[in-house]
Amino acid sequence: MATIPRLAEIQAEFATAIFRPLGAADRMASRWPDGRPTAQVVGDLIKPGPLLPSFERLEIYNRQYWFRLWDCLLDDYPGLLAVLGRRRFMELATQYLVRFPSRSFTLRNLGRSLATHLASDRRWREGLAPGRVRLVREMAAFEWAQVEAFDGAIRSPIELGALRGKDPATLRLSLQPSMSLLSLHWALDDFAIALKQDLQQEQASQASEPEAQPTRPRRRRLPRAERLFLAVHRVDNSLFYKRLSAPAFRTLRELQAGATLAAAVERGSAGLRGTALERAQAVQSWFATWSQLGWLCRHSTNQAPRQPARTPSRGNPVRGAKRPRK
Amino acid sequence: MPANRFNGWTDLGIGVGLRIPHYSHILSRKPSVEWFEIISENYMVDGGRALHVLDQILEQYRIVQHGVSLYLGSTDPLNREHLRRLKTLIRRTKTPFVSDHLCWGSVDGTYSHDLLPLPYTREAVRHLASRIKAVRDFIETPILVENVSSYAEFHASEMTEWEFLAEVVEKADCGVLLDVNNIYVSSRNHGFDPAEYLEAVPPERVGQIHVAGHSHYERYTLDTHDHPVLDPVWSLYARAIERCGPVSTLLEWDAHIPPFEEVHAEALKARKFLARASAPRRARAPGAAGAGRGR
């Protein structure tokens, strides 16, 4: 009498099949990783059904896995899709998901390791000009920043008045954990707003003419080259992009990295033009604005400091829910 | 019994799955809905609009939590971070019970984000029962487990799906979220009689029922939740209500979501079946001891 395979063995074998990338025409790979025909391996695991052989039954799950995860990345990275084009985007998404499959119970975190993948894998760069490579990396960071800002934690903000009498040489402040600071070479904020308007128009025209033949996706213009410093943040449950001056950006980065207030201002405002009084007024004005926006919080040692070199990435106010289809 | 120890003694009536496209309608029009079911994972976040909307809806409506990624059948250790976040959300919603699926979905910490079918083995029964108990102990809230629709069956199975379901809930001493659409979809894909399945479900353990739409393809049927409920599913639902009583019922609609009124009207089709099941009880009520527990 044959022994019954253990539950863990069955699940491992099933997972091997569904996590493998789809082949041509979105079919399940015909060879198992060890070279055996997949149909043979699957035939030993899955019963044939009334209408489908074992291979095709498991193939439904293999397809569902990839279609669901691709859809999620397409939802989260519309800008990346626009700058890469669909074919390159899908190749990148597949390579990324093979290297960094989901390790979270929620699809919200699916793009968490995309910046790491882009920095450490060269395949997606083949045939791309250096400028486009940097654009792709910055877009991925910008779009992940939107995921973080959309539903990340918001701590109690600190009032500027609460800082009176504190010693700037020892005082440390934290920034809201959901906000990101990005150093960019393209006007990705303007691009994201324009892209969102385009997509809304397309959806509206599809809704008004549901029977119309789908048209080829419009080729979009690339973002405009522009050096800018951006904060991606949330206020009253809506996402915003705020442009910052280079000194203001540096100061925030220093605070985020754990510098004292005095050190952050000194390093950040270096190169700020004007008289001492004008420079002091500029710094005061930054802090007044940041306090109004609720960016500053009491220093938290639980909050991992973000390194100034961080480049990774939701700016659109409406974020779709993620759930497996049942 | 519609209210039982498995669903926290609740008798909720007809509910609708809370979905993002309906947020503004619900908040501005405040439709008369008996309850909403939320997908727990969509609200297990640190902040943002979803939690803000949820808090507003909680001021007006009863909310019940339904999960999609506990993966009670996975052989991975339980995800403690998931459980902590689930318990935090339970405190927020005061859900009388939570539900999740009789399935697995992760291996070695990698998530499929799908509801994968289990082999119906005695080992799997023991494994599931112990995990359900562990989760219930942690969250201190009753759990219902839902039968999933499936497209594959294992050679290793030692029993039918309905025998498996009955054994798991008996061993775990938990309730059933009976998805009659899933029974129908699986019956089409595996070639069994859905009525036979239904007759084997322990009626006293059914704490909630799901209905939904599905899609037929040439050689298989998919559980798509993108259509109104089809007639064969309403027929199964009618039989389920006959057996289990007027159990709280929820319509799931997850893709190609129409306006809220349309979804709610579809859910309210369940009324005529519930009314039939309630009629004899109500007729007996005036003279019956302990009567008067109605919605």
What can you see in these coordinates?
The complex is a heterodimer of chains A (326) and B (295). Chain A has 326 residues and is mostly helical. Chain A has eleven helices and five strands, in the order H-H-H-H-H-H-H-E-E-H-E-E-H-H-H-E. In chain A, the strands form two sheets. Chain A has a three-stranded antiparallel beta sheet, sandwiched between helices. Chain A has a two-stranded antiparallel ribbon with strand order 1-5. The longest helix of chain A has 23 residues, at 54-76. With 295 residues, chain B is α/β, with parallel strands linked by helices. Chain B has a single domain, classed as Alpha-Beta Barrel (TIM Barrel), CATH 3.20.20.150. Chain B contains ten helices and twelve strands. In chain B, the strands form three sheets. In chain B, strands 1-2-3-4-7-8-9-12 form an eight-stranded parallel beta barrel, surrounded by four helices. Chain B has a two-stranded antiparallel sheet with strand order 5-6. In chain B, strands 10-11 form a two-stranded antiparallel ribbon. At the A-B interface, helix 1 and helix 3 of A face helix 2, strand 5, strand 6, helix 4 and helix 6 of B.
Sum this structure up briefly.
With 326 residues, chain A is mainly alpha-helical.
Helix tally of chain B equals 10
CATH architectural arrangement of the largest domain in chain A:
Alpha-Beta Complex
CATH T-level fold name of chain B: TIM Barrel
CATH uppermost class of the largest domain in chain A: Alpha Beta
Reading the helices and strands of chain A in chain order gives: HHHHHHHEEHEEHHHE
Biggest chain contact: A-B, 58 and 66 residues
**Strand sequence of the main sheet of chain A, in spatial order?**
2-3-4
Radius of gyration of chain A: 24 Å
Number of domains of chain A: 2
What's the order of the H and E elements of chain B?
A: EHEHEHEEEHEHEHHEEEHEHH
The main sheet of chain B orders its strands as 1-2-3-4-7-8-9-12
